[in-house]
Each structure stands twice: as structure tokens, then as C-alpha cells.
Amino acid sequence: MFRTVGLLGLAMFLLGCTESGDDSPDRNNTPNPPQQNTAAETPSDTAGTQSGRAGEPTLSVPRSRLQQSLACHGNPSGASEPVVLLVPGSTLTPEANFQWNYIPALLDLGRTVCTVELPEKAMGDIQVAAEHLVFAIRDLSARSGQPIQIVGYSQGGMVPRWALRFWPSTRAQVSDLISLAGSHKGTVTAIPSCLDRCAPAFWQQRQDSAFMAALNRDGQETWPEVHYTSAYTRYDEVVFPNFAAEVANSRLAGGDNVANIELQSVCPLNSAEHLAIGTYDPVGWALAKDALMNEGPADPSRVSLETCLQLTMPGVDQSTFLQDFTETVAFIGETSGNAEQVDEEPPLACYATENGC
Known about the structure:
Blueprint: H1 7-15, E1 35-36, H2 63-68, E2 70-73, E3 84-87, H3 94-98, H4 102-108, E4 113-116, H5 119-122, H6 126-144, E5 148-153, H7 155-166, E6 174-180, H8 190-193, H9 200-204, H10 210-215, E7 227-232, E8 258-262, H11 263-266, H12 274-277, H13 282-293, H14 321-338
Parallel strand pairs: 3-4, 3-5, 5-6, 6-7, 7-8
Antiparallel strand pairs: 1-2, 2-4
Helix pairs in contact: 1-14, 6-7
């Protein structure tokens, strides 16, 4: 298995222990940009994507901005199988995270693939990012006429849970949430990184943050309407700890609708760390594919032993792998260096507090 990036170096990249700089323009190396959602903006909510349901928060982000964050390969309205929504991790855009791996692999399966770009390259307030998820879930399920499936990496595997918790109507619109190294209970490594100033999303992903306490309040981490697959690696140096099931911050509580799967329980010699599992690791892909193709969460017994012998997942071009991976690492470093730094965790929205405001 490739180990291109040192664990400590990657952790410093992802946890952004740098001063903020001037905002830099988005990098887009996508050779074939996805088809954009070009539905006309209207003051009414004909698709039920903007206005609040009874007892649910109204989305505060302008509809035009929510539309711009959603892009698709293929037409959701014509999808015979559930649309797959990809959600990137902190410091990343959908292109940097998924263009050279998950998007081509899913297109090869004949799936309609959509992506949502989180504000500030997933470095801003995660509560705002979650509104983009709510919009995407509502829009894609309405257009396709069926529940969608979500695959998210790191923060991208966790933030849909905020949408599912505080916008309950979305639970019927999502059949599967598949997370790769999801920061479901935050991470210990963000605590020393945010003693002074850091990006809002890193404050919120501290294991001891108010955001994490609200997300997992009363031990309610999952909902029976949704199938959850949480794939993680014991060698994760960013979402930490994940080295044992008893302490793994990527694990989720729940019943038969939840599968928590350590990569090394499937392939004992797998050495994937945090970035690998969300970009090229074949075992993470095999588990995600199994959950996408079958009813219920992933079942590791269905993963072929041949997977353990593979170096990269389908969709990765071996001839450009090192370049693609190196560019992703450089993108992470650039984003970390230019991210807004704040003095404290963003306050909880009124709807997320125990007693409201």
C-alpha cells in the first residue's frame, strides 16, 4: 500500500496550525466539469428544498448559493438507481477529493453522481455547511423520486448527520450514509491545534466541542430510517483515536441498520491512513460499493479477498496516481494556510441548543 505522506505531516496539513493568509481563488483541475444544477431560482419552493418543515429550521443560506454548490454527472431526474451524493472532507472541494477516484469509479457502475461543495472548502461553520446538505438531499430526492445515498469523507461523512438530526424530514430522503473516516465524535488532535486560533470547522471537530455535544446529544447518533456504514482505519492520525473499537471516534451507535467496520478487520495488512481511506484505498471503496449495491449497511463478508491485494481502488489511473495524490496533498496545504482563523468555536444555532434561544 502506498504511504506517500508521513502521518505527522498530514495531520498538520489537515489540522491547519498556520496563520491565515489572503483568500486564494478556488483551484479547479477538473478536465470535464460536472453538469451544474441550473434550475431557475424562484421565490416559491416548488421542490420543497428551501422552506422549513413544521418544527424544522428554515435554511438561512440564499437559494442561489445552495444551487451553485450542487453539481451532477448525469441527470437525477432520469436515474433508475439512487443518486449518489459525494461530500468532501475538511480543506477539500469535491474536485480535489473525488474527481480522480470516486467519481470515475461510480460512473463506471452506471450511477448518477452528484457532489456538494461545502463553504470555504469545508473550513467554515459546519452548521452552515449542513444547510447545503439539507438542500442537496431535498433537491436530489425530489428530482429522482427516491431516497438518495450519501458517501462522505472525514467531515463529509459527519456533516450529513447534522442535517439528519435537525431536519428530520430528510431521514426519509436518504437510504444510506456511508462515511470514510467520519469525524462522528470529533478528534482529540484538534484540541491542541485550537488552543488559540484555528478554522471554525476545526473548533467544531474538537472532541470536546459544543457542536459535537449537540450532534450526539442523549446518545442519539443514528436514525432507524437510514442505513449507516462507517468505515475507518486504526492508523488514522487525524480523526483520533480510531486505533481500537472501544475508543474509535468514527464508530456510530445504533442497531442492525449500523455497520462499523475497521479496514484491518477486513484486510489485516491494510495500512491506509486518514487521507488514503477517502481517496484511493481499495478496502474503503469495496465497503462503500457493497453498501451502495445492497440493501442495508455494508457487510464485510461480501468483500472479496482479492481486494486485499489491490494497491488502489477502481477509478484511480495508475499512470497519474502519484501526481493526483500529490496535488491533493498540496491542495490541502494551500487551503489550510489560507483558511480564516477565529478565536473561538462558532456559537450553536438556536435550533441546536437544548432549550432553544
